[in-house]
From TrEMBL:
The keyword Coiled coil applies. Pfam families: Tropomyosin (PF00261). Keywords: Coiled coil. Residues 1-119 form a coiled coil. SUPFAM superfamilies: Tropomyosin (SSF57997). It comes from Ephemerocybe angulata. This is Tropomyosin.
Length: 123
């Protein structure tokens, strides 16, 4: 009889321990489910942020592409303007030289005219 009581006591203790383990496991399961929900929400939030950042990267890549095109066009216009300036400088130099030649001829003709007037004035 003592053996039966001891056996029943062991079985009750094992049952109580099993219930305690089951309750602990259920608590851990609830915590795990809550953690899973929180992690899923965080994942969703991070996915949204990643999507927005990818859109921003795409927009900035497009903007960079447009800026590169603008830079190329500006560079071409600057090169054209530089060629125009060089051409204008050459034209100016040509005109200055021509002016100097014509001015020298004018002064020569003026001198000859003055000499002619002086020689005619003596007549």
């Amino acid at each position: 009889m003592d053996r039966i009581k001891a056996k029943l006591e062991d079985l009750r203790r094992e049952g109580d321990e099993a219930v305690a383990r089951a309750e602990a496991a259920e608590g851990e399961l609830r915590e795990a489910k809550l953690l899973l929900v929180r992690l899923e929400q965080e994942h969703s939030s991070l996915t949204t942020k990643v999507d927005k950042l990818e859109e921003k990267v795409d927009e900035q890549a497009e903007e960079i592409s447009q800026l590169k095109k603008n830079l190329q066009q500006s560079t071409l216009r600057a090169e054209e303007a530089e060629r125009g300036i060089k051409g204008a400088e050459q034209d100016r130099e040509t005109l200055e030289h021509r002016y100097e030649v014509l001015d020298a001829q004018y002064k020569k003709v003026q001198k000859e005219l003055a000499e002619l007037e002086q020689s005619l004035g003596g007549l």
